[in-house]
Amino acid sequence: xxxxxxxxxxxxxxxxxxxxxxxxxxxxxxxxxxxxxxxxxxxxxxxxxxxxxxxxxxxxxxxxxxxxxxxxxxxxxxxxxxxxxxxxxxxxxxxxxxxxxxxxxxxxxxxxxxxxxxxxxxxxxxxxxxxxxxxxxxxxxxxxxxxxxxxxxxxxxxxxxxxxxxxxxxxxxxxxxxxxxxxxxxxxxxxxxxxxxxxxxxxxxxxxxxxxxxxxxxxxxxxxxxxxxxxxxxxxxxxxxxxxxxxxxxxxxxxxxxxxxxxxxxxxxxxxxxxxxxxxxxxxxxxxxxxxxxxxxxxxxxxxxxxxxxxxxxxxxxxxxxxxxxxxxxxxxxxxxxxxxxxxxxxxxxxxxxxxxxxxxxxxxxxxxxxxxxxxxxxxxxxxxxxxxxxxxxxxxxxxxxxxxxxxxxxxxxxxxx
Length: 418
Description:
The protein has about 425 residues and is of the alpha/beta class.
């Protein structure tokens, strides 16, 4: 992604107003982010208070809009105008884009002093430490290959947690026969791609996933294994209610919470909906890895990329990065967010059962080199390739296209998008 001054023309009036703020104000850090929900804001407030204790003020640059597209538009304009903020919440390849442009600070001295290399998994370092230079401080790790299930439905029908595809199909068939929607589905491109992530991992294994969705290997993308992935995706459609198109993810989660559906395949942010509804893990709902993906995780990670700032602001910026990486903050934030800490040495004792499972499984996957960036969530392939895959998956799911034709389109689309 080349950052050009023409980006200024894309920015709204509100963004331009934000661009006039003074990023290097003495004794302050300016933080651009899109965490505006109650729980997320409360967690960030912990970070704010930690800095205030050090005499560092907080200039909040919240820009509403899930995923950060609007926030990125604002910051591109700021960078183009030579007025970058102290930091911005970023995801995966967006960090690499700014790093490639030479716009991010070098945090190596701080990272070495605090031992970041020892506690951050290698799969995360790909984005936080491009070309051997730390440019961002990771806040969390969201893992995406989860199934969330209504325990009452499973108990009533005598269903055990499925561990492979055949068991999953048998469970879904039993639920459907009981007159209950087996799968709560959100008919949006990113949600369907999240499920495809899990299917590719489950059907072909971690090596196949890496070849297809990290290396973008044409042989893997065109393979019989990928045909089976799409066949399984079509099978899943038979377990979905007819009102799925354009359903938001949290509304699908609510179907499971309310007993209208038995399962949802979604990242760990779904847990927040259960907790907000006063539901308890292993009592009211179950969390388990998508059948066939045990021992591995697909992930995305929120991080704060640090921009190059003047000498007068570098000390405060370093204090901010240090506070983000502080184990106590990592625990406090992720307990609220539903994700796992980005540091592998944070204790899980204060996390709920699903959180403890996430921390344990993440460490195991990282140690086994089975921690893989999520295609659906911007940590496996560049944005253009991700969009091309989205289009193929959504078109297939909403049509009667054959799996063989979809796979042909997939390989072609990825090749064209690279």
